[in-house]
Structure formats: C-alpha cells, structure tokens
Write a structure and sequence with these properties.
single chain, about 120 residues, Ribosomal Protein L22, Chain A, three-stranded antiparallel beta sheet, elongated
C-alpha cells in the first residue's frame, strides 16, 4: 500500500533540495522526519511538509487507518526542476546580467514495509 504527495513551484533550486533529499531517501518515515525537523538546511522544511502530507494521504485511505507510521518508509523521493524566473541586474559598463531564479517540484511516495 502506498500514497503520493507533491509540492510544486518551491522557490529553492533543485540542486539544493536534492542534497537534503539524498539524506532521507529510503529511510523509515519516523527517522526521515526526525532528520528533516532538526536539520538546519533550508530545503528541509518543504521536504518535511511533503513527507507529512504523503503519510496523511495514506492514513486517510480506507485500508490505511490500520497502518502505523513506524511501518512506513520513503519509497521514492524525486526532485525535478520547475520553471526559471529570469531577472536582470545592473552590471559594469551599463550592461545587464541575467539572474536565474530556479524553482523545484518535490514528489514523495510513501509505502508500507513488506515483511
């Protein structure tokens, strides 16, 4: 049994989000939430919210009410790039330099451990 959750248009670059996602991919849900909650990195909060949302989605299913959060693990945690906002900033000699403000899409699949 598994459930999915997504967060789109997160205003953090995918490179930074992937560094935190690699720490918790494949772990149990309780361990992953513990790591994300006490980690000081910026992308930890959006990833934690998506993991909590996926767990809530699983618990709201008819069969999911009997499952404990200790029996769950992060089956898939994927970070994709979203659209890039293009801005300009003044540079030397009257030029304009492009600034690329990147966004991310985070998708999480939580599943029950098979014995």
């Amino acid at each position: 049994m598994e459930a999915k959750a997504m967060a789109k248009w997160i205003r953090i670059s995918p490179y930074k989000v992937r560094r935190v996602a690699n720490m918790v991919r494949g772990l149990g849900v309780d361990d992953a939430l513990n790591i994300l909650h006490f980690n000081g990195a910026g992308p930890s909060l959006p990833i934690e919210k998506v993991v909590r949302s996926a767990v809530a989605n699983l618990m709201n299913k008819e069969e999911g009410a009997k499952i404990s959060s200790q029996d769950l693990y992060i089956k898939e945690l994927k970070v994709d790039g979203g659209f890039v906002m293009k801005r300009f900033r003044a540079a030397s000699m009257g030029r304009g330099m492009r600034i690329r403000k990147r966004t991310s899409h985070i998708s999480v699949v939580v599943a029950q451990k098979q014995d």
